[in-house]
Amino acid sequence: MEILYAQHHRLDFPDHTHDTFNIALILNQTFSVKLPGKVLRAPIGNLCITNPQEVHATPCEQIMGNTFTTFYVAPDVLKSMNGEADVFFEEKVIYDEALFLEFLSLSRKPSDTAAQYERRMLNCLAVLVQKYAVPSTFKSSDLRLFHEFLDEHRQQSFSLADTAKKFGMDSFKFLRLFKQETGLTPNRYVIQKRIEAAKDLLLHADDLLEVAVSTGFYDVPHLTREFKKIVGVSPGVYRNSAFNIVQF
């Protein structure tokens, strides 16, 4: 599980997805989330949740910025609390004072032992699932071949025309089908996958240029610019944060 604390964040997050559940605690300013066809607004003191693979964007307040803490939780963790059945949050903005305060306490530097912290966190997630989640099977991809091709070639320079040609279609048709399936453009999908790979490497590598080149970015500034758009912090801050990964 990862925990992100953003203070007075002004940089908009573009359309993107996560492999995890995102559980955000809204700490100042009303928090906005753009989903396909609607915009949700979460006031201070609320939880705001997005599901795995759910396309969303977060426009941030440009003067004061938004302050929030987000827990990124693997789907398998919540499935284990639901009899191994998939869970889904239809209700994205949740007001539950007791749950909010417990998550808030868990987001701060813990004074608990590792075992105590784990027990409190799992109990908090279990309450969230029991009270607000509904059973659901995540949508399977009808265009998995597109994804597999882009995953295999994510470290190469991306060309929409060349990629579309490999599937025997023109660029416009490929773009329309891909976005219809994923909610993302192929270019944004490739960049997101590169960032996911960079996050893994950053936990073990010291050389940012090596990480950038290994994951298909031109240089460190290119990696940093795209990384901050999705993750909210620079690669260096992500790597050096002592509390950026919580392992159960």
Features:
248 residues; alpha+beta; globular; 11 strands
Structure description:
The structure is a single chain. The protein is of the alpha+beta class and 248 residues long. The chain is built from 10 helices and 11 strands. The strands form 4 sheets. It has a 5-stranded antiparallel beta sheet. The protein has a two-stranded antiparallel ribbon with strand order 2-7. It is globular and about 55 Å long.
Backbone CA Rg: 19 Å
Outline: globular
Strand order, sheet with most strands = 1-8-3-6-10
* Residues in helices, as a percent range: 40-55%
Average pLDDT for all residues: 84
Largest sheet: 5 strands, antiparallel
Strand residues, percent: 15-25%
Count of DSSP H/I helices: 10
**Amino- and carboxy-terminal Cα gap:** 8 Å
Order of helices and strands: EEEEEEEEHEEHHEHHHHHHH
Outline the low-pLDDT stretches. Answer: 242-248
The total count of strands amounts to 11
Structure class? alpha+beta
